[in-house]
Write a structure and sequence with these properties.
heterodimer; A: 109 residues; mainly beta; six-stranded mixed beta sheet; five-stranded antiparallel beta sheet; 11 strands; B: 111 residues; seven-stranded mixed beta sheet; 54% strand
């Protein structure tokens, strides 16, 4: 079963913050985050492993709450280059990576 | 840098045709994947392969088959194309459980 992402779409002005959530009905081993710009291939952002860690990548960071089986991606002081579709991918023990439905992010000047 | 190359960016075929989508990676990755991407449905796994001549069904394998005769090449086959297979198809590869590297995708239209 696919993880559920929310919101489905979000529009920001440059400099604003956003949070994208990813929830699963299964116990998770890891969560992967990817970004796909329009017309391009999805690109890996970061991976979070079981243990509730938080990771950062420039002004993009993420957390993993294994008890709630969810992860959140935080985009702070958004830039035009952040526009795209964000996908989470979740792994459960012994299972393959399953991607979510995606969140479309548009950053306006 | 990892390079995953899909043979066509755009493809138009007719209903009932047998369609081949090709994917080649240059990093000696064991794992290769085929996804389809549709609005509102995200990335859905069709088939994947952990080794040459090995294949595993993903979440939506119906109407598709795959072939992996060489480690670097993974082909997706639509046995008899139908209009509901019009979609964006993405190939990816990875080393063991490392992050996946994606190709640019093939936008397939079935008329």
């Amino acid at each position: 079963q696919q993880p559920v992402q929310s919101p489905q779409a979000v529009i920001l002005r440059e400099g604003e913050d956003a949070v994208i959530n990813c929830s699963s009905s299964k116990a998770l081993y890891s969560v992967h985050w990817y970004r796909q710009k329009h017309g391009e291939a999805p690109v890996f952002l970061m991976i979070l492993l079981k243990g509730g860690e938080q990771k950062g990548h420039e002004k993009i960071s993420a957390s993993f709450n294994e008890k709630k089986q969810q992860s959140s991606l935080y985009l702070t002081a958004s830039q035009l280059s952040y526009s795209g579709t964000y996908f989470c991918g979740t792994e459960s023990s012994g299972d393959k990576l399953t991607f979510g439905t995606g969140t479309r992010l548009a950053v306006r000047p | 840098d990892v390079k995953v190359t899909q043979s066509s960016r755009y493809l138009v075929k007719r209903t009932g045709e047998k369609v081949f989508l090709e994917c080649v990676q240059d990093m000696d990755h064991e794992n290769m994947f085929w996804y389809r991407q549709d609005p509102g449905l995200g990335l859905r796994l069709i088939y994947f392969s952990y080794d040459v001549k090995m294949k595993e069904k993903g979440d939506i394998p119906e109407g598709y088959s795959v072939s992996r005769e060489k480690k670097e090449r993974f082909s997706l086959i639509l046995e008899s194309a139908s209009t509901n297979q019009t979609s964006m198809y993405l190939c990816a590869s990875s080393f063991k459980s490392q992050p996946q590297h994606f190709g640019d995708g093939t936008r397939l239209s079935i008329l």
